[in-house]
Amino acid sequence: MLDVNQFNQRAWDAQVESGNQWTIPVSTEEVQAARQGNWDIFLTPTKPVPKEWFPDLKGLSVLCLGGGGGQQGPLLAAAGAEVTVFDQSPKQLAQDRMVAERDNLNIQTVQGDMADLSALDDGIFDLIVHPVSNCFVADVRPVWREVERVLKLGGQLFSGLVNPLIYIFEQEGFEKGLFKIVNAIPYSDLKSLSAEKLKEYEEKHYPLEFGHSLNDLITGQIEAGLLITGFYEDTWDLHALSKHIATFFVTRARKD
């Protein structure tokens, strides 16, 4: 049986080599600006997380979950947070270490499966920032349970999420605006792609994706013990569907 974690680890390592936009680290100039209080982080393609969502970052313990690539972690560290970056891809984590060494930042990195944070102790993080990445795990509910475990009481989770609607359409025409409904939610590349297509994904280093139901994405957080306290939507020009409906959203949740 295909190991999704290993498959996607190899895919994202290859995406780093090919220069995928989500693997390109921030510049020294951006880090310097963050040290002066001028920074934004993105958990979805185009809209930054509202500044009013953040507590004072100085000395705050922050986990960037599924957040390798040298993008969110270095800016939060430069703004004063104590940052740990957790990611499946060693090469994505290497981007964060490169920025940390280049710009003298204190960033810890941990490699592993976001649905298993056993390498991290209970109740140690004040804030978890989770850019769009749980679309690469087959079951999102264990992610929420692990998040709840490692958060401090009163700690917050900011999650970038994919609108599952994008997965109901035939993939070949989706980005061209041809919306032929062929799939159901929850969606799995493992179940929907042919053996030939899966081989193509492996050869071209495309990660496997999973479209989670809104029940798993939202109710899953609540049932894990988190209180939803904020929400916004985002779009992406790459998705023709974004002309009609937001294809990403972000939730803010708190452990009470």
Characteristic key phrases:
256 residues, alpha/beta, Rossmann fold, 7-stranded mixed β-sheet, two-stranded antiparallel sheet, 9 strands
Overall description:
This protein is α/β, with parallel strands linked by helices. The chain has one domain: 3-Layer(aba) Sandwich (Rossmann fold). Helix content is 32%, strand content 21%. It is built from 9 helices and 9 strands. The strands form 2 sheets. Strands 3-2-1-4-5-9-8 form a 7-stranded mixed sheet, sandwiched between helices. The radius of gyration is 18 Å and the shape is globular. The model has no long low-confidence stretch (mean pLDDT 97).
How many DSSP-defined strands?
9
> Into how many domains do the coordinates divide?
1
Please list the strands of the largest sheet in the order they lie side by side: 3-2-1-4-5-9-8
Helix content: 25-40%
Query: Could you spell the SSE succession in H and E letters?
Result: HHEHEHEEHEHEHHEHEE
- Tell me about the biggest sheet? 7 strands, mixed
Indicate the mean pLDDT.
97
